[in-house]
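seq as requested:
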Amino acid sequence: MAKQLKRWQGWLLFGGAMVIVFVLGLIVSSLLERRAEVASVFNNRRTMFNDSIVSQNEKFKEDFPREYETWSMTEDTSFVSLYNGSREVDILEKQPAICVIWAGYAFSQNYNTPRGHRHCLEDLRKILRTGAPGVEGGKEMQPGTCWTCKGPDVPRLMREKGIGAFYGAKWSDWGNQVMNTVGCSDCHDARTMELRPARPALYEAWQRVGKDVRKARHQEMRSLVCAQCHTEYYFEKENNNYLHFPQEKGMTCEAAEAYYDSIGFYDYIHPLSKTPILKAQHPGYEMSLQGIHAQRGVSCADCHMPYIQEGGIKYTDHHVMSPLAHIDRTCQTCHRQDAETLRQNVYERQKKVYDFAVKVNSELAYAHIEAKFAWDKGATEPEMKHVLDDLRKSQWRWDYALASHGAAFHAPQEVMRLLAAAMEYAKDARLQVAKVVARHGFTGDIPLPDISTKAKAQAYIGLNMPLLKQKKQEFLKTVVPVWIEKARQNKRFIAQPM
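struct tokens:
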């Protein structure tokens, strides 16, 4: 006869059984919740597309109302942060020395902080850097390649016209075609809604180093759909401005520099110092990889597109913006500190970076100005070689560190390392200039212009800002409306274009 269980043993078995039932209940609840989510998103779709690219974002609204509604909110520019909120801020107004650093390049005319995705077409059209094509006396400033990341019309055009033909066209050639701002088909296959970067340059970059974007894990893909645009790139000048991500030698600042040096590339010659300059674009993906969050497996979407829970439905918030706007859904999913503590942690890191960056701005601008003084005093190319090498290295590190949106938090140690190197090279450039001008009989302090305001700095580098602004306004009033009307006739968009 089996021994009877002791009283405590019976209670133990009962408790254990309850725990098992509770855990199974949680698992079933999670499965049902996920099933409800999947059912609501896919099984209830009324519109099934036969094409992987659907340019008009409004066509997704009925089947994905939550995602569409939050995506539409990227039009909102009310979020204010200590640094880089949603508002448009004139960086050159705040830091006029940058006008001198970018002298000879269109960025010296106009450089603003980015707004939400819904504004990207409007901002591209109105920025002075794109010029005023189609206006008497206006210039065609950019190639067709400059539209690449501005919306789902781009992959459509690449397929219709050919990738090379898209890049090789003039910027104005696609003005009446690109009407739908960054949206659904930029990141999703419209047939399945699977995450899928739509830009061929990313696939090509990975292929060159023996990797396949299509085999990336889902969590990695939640960053790669951002990396197809928020990355360092250049245009192959001898190949119809074909878009190229310089990742062959690695994903660091120095790796990209080594690649550019290996092919003798430069973006432009600085008119003051005569330095062959590398212009960093926005290496957000590369810089994030240098930070602790990406190294711990956190994706871009985890922080900039956090999940929202509504009953049994869990979906991704498509209001892409600063994580500081929703700390409870971003930072606090991992960190247990209160929201204000976390916010101040971010500000502290950013402040250290930007305070030092202001000092580098001045040092680098004055280095270019003093190099011009040396040329004016009769310096020779061999004498200036060391100076130009220093300036190229300094500006590349300065630009790479600051052109990446959010890098002051994504990878603050890396940003400070690059800025420190930029400062060192700029100081050495000024020292070498002093030695050069001394050999030409000048031993005093090199005179420096007043570049304390944007207007003064732009005037010093020879920009006729009133004329540039006048031509741009004519372009916006006369050319852009024609583009929009032609697109309307060809049914290129549904809602009013941005």
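Residues 31-40 have pLDDT under 50 and may be disordered.
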